[in-house]
Amino acid sequence: MRKFFTSALIALSAVSVMAQPVTKAGPEKKGELTFTTVKENPITPIKNQYRSGTCWCFSGIAFLESEAIRINGIKDPEAYPDFSEMFVVSHSYQDRAEKYVRLDGNLTFGAGSEIGDVLHIVSDYGLVPQSVQPGTEYGTELPVHGELDAVTKAYVEAIAKNPNRTLSTGWKKGFKGIVDAYLGECPTEFEYNGQTYTPASYRDSYKINSDDYVSFTSYTHHPFYKKFALEICDNWRYDQDWNVPIDDFMAVIDNAIMNGFTVAWASDVSEKGFTRDGLAQLLADAKKTSGSDQERWVGKSGEPAEESAPEEIEATQEFRQKGYDDKSTTDDHGMQIFGIAKDQFGNKYYMVKNSWGEAGKHKGIWYASEAFVRGKSMSIFVHKDALPKDVAKKIGVK
Predict the structure, then answer these.
(1) 369 and 347 Cβ atoms separated by less than 8 Å
(2) For residue 291, what are the CA distances in angstroms to 44, 134, 360, 379?
(3) Which residues contact 54 (CB under 8 A, 6 or more apart)?
(4) Contact at 8 Å (CB) between 352 and 366?
(5) Smaller CB count within 10 Å for the chain: N or C?
(6) Cβ contacts of residue 201 below 8 Å, gap of 6+?
(7) Could you tell me the pTM of the whole model?
């Protein structure tokens, strides 16, 4: 999964005036980049999706945790919410199983999904705290989903063949039983901090409304300022994004960050420039790797980091479209953009919360260049109040 500027864009020099340097990420050796924070919005602690393909959920939940902090004005990090990813994953798997069977198996069934899936689940089922449903009922501390994914896929493939010629009334219970065995049974009511909640009332206690969020993409094979469903396998709900020119797309990100919002980000990370050391740059060539989720995209632990080229590709609208059309840009990973920084040369980078634990030089944070985000983003989600006024007007969002 799943992954700047218009005429109204604030120029980088203007952004610099607003800069409030908070932290510096300095070089450990000569030639490395040093980053100074320009704007940073609150995030919850780094989590680890480990050996699961659920980045879409970890990024979506991270985004909603930051939204809960912002909406409710939570100042104390000790009071930051910690929402359960596996509550969402469980409901998502069950929803997709039903659709898979309805379509006679003509749907991708796997761990991957899109960030919008999180908003569907939150709207339909609610949220629960991590402590109420940790979601690791199979003997490991961190998610390990190979067996779960193999078993659930085999189950729905068997059901989709309809061996009885009429579907039984028991197949959904059977599928739920498998998911519950691995991820825990989703509660309908629970006690938390001395209060009784349902998942819906717990969600509502944080004033989270899925209807308040807007998604964007930027490709030329569909008209701009209209919606279309990204043609990617993980978009199994056929959700539609607003299609806007890349300058408007980037303006949405910048306006959101500079005004205290974060951004849920789906991007291609199968690039040479997306390193395991917390750096993402748009270099000339790309490479594919395999293994667990982090190793799948950026190589195994202990591999020497490749040196980054000093210059990046110009990420034009045409570059984006070519990458989408020839599959050199793919829907790999979901993350959260929460800040803007500059390197020692004045180049702009986005501060990104990943879900690979405290990996890399910056302990789970990546610095993604403006060119990388411009060239390799698949889609973004933001709160509607984060939109620049001209973009909101163009798409009719109030």
Answers:
(1) yes
(2) 27, 24, 17, 25
(3) 85, 89, 111, 113, 143, 145
(4) yes
(5) C
(6) 126
(7) 0.88
